Please model this.
Amino acid sequence: MVEIHGLCDSAFSAVRDAFEDNFEQRGELGAAVTVLAGGRTVVDLWAGHADAARTRSWDQDTLVNVWSTTKGVVALCAHILVDRGLLELDAPVAKYWPEFAAAGKDELPVRHLLSHRAGLAGLREPHTTTDLCDWELTASRLAATEPWWEPGTVSGYHAVTWGHLIGEIIRRVSGLLPGDFLRAEVTGPLGIDFHIGLPSAEHGRVAELVQPFATSDSAVAEMLAGLHPAAVAALANPVLTAADANTGAWRRAQVPAANGHGTARAVAALYGVAAFGGRHGDRQVLSPEAVERAREGQGSCVDLVLGAGLGGAETEFALGYDLSGPRGSYGPNPRAFGHDGYGGSCGLADPENGIAMGYVMNRIGYSIVDDPRKMALVQAIYGDTAPR
Model:
């Protein structure tokens, strides 16, 4: 039996039960979950181990790479700039990033980047993990890249490129790389333990990611067989694994689509800004109007990258977030929103019900979205009203 640590309000005891079941029935190694309701912490639990050898216990301050759950945090930064009148969603990206006008992208608007509709789901030339950690190289290659499809017509999940695309706009507007902007404007002033570009001094707190399935060339080839070329570029250029994320170079770099490091508390707090009218405690981080704008759906479709993994089901991105929609990814409210990270992690915001959640873990699951462990926790929050 795993030992569960932390607190859980009796009204949310089902979340504790689901969290325990994730260890007993769903192969969890180490994890934490935090749920905020009405701005109050009602669940804050952690358990398990921070390494594959089970020599380090997961504790309340354990950090972990949350992969694409990072995207919702970077979206918050972009919407802060929109809120301040420094960034226009319908302005061409090239207004802020002139080099981006190459390859017919001169009129491509900012909103297409945020909603994965820009046609830039992956690079066309080979791009390594080392290249990805080189900001100037990755940004310059993206600026020169021709879209894989007509921008705005359909979404194609920009799995890795999204962070550099949005991040370079943040840098051009604010003068700061996205991780530096986040620290200066959000996490530093609010005391939130989330980092994009983790200082070496903090690496001792980071949980080891564990990937229990094969990532051989043949396994990758089988996974990619028959996919749209943009999906191959998005998911395999480069192929990212736990081994990459466990290196010091990855942790120190800024890869804002995929390498945010934080606690469950931090994820819940950052997504909670959107759940609670743009507020964190007594500070107004975003205007209520900005929160509504952030979750405006940009068109439901079978995503060119995610569609195969979702069995051909339609999905809909808002402006930097994924909408709960009919899948119920973030509970029964179709206008709830959030973002999943590769293999399990999640941030959730439900303004109508005043709920925010952060879930982080170190054993990578088999799902890009809607991991069974995450969905069990969402189901437990909402009980019989949640889609099954």
Remarks:
- The chain has 14 helices and twelve strands.
- The first strand starts at residue 5 and ends at 8.
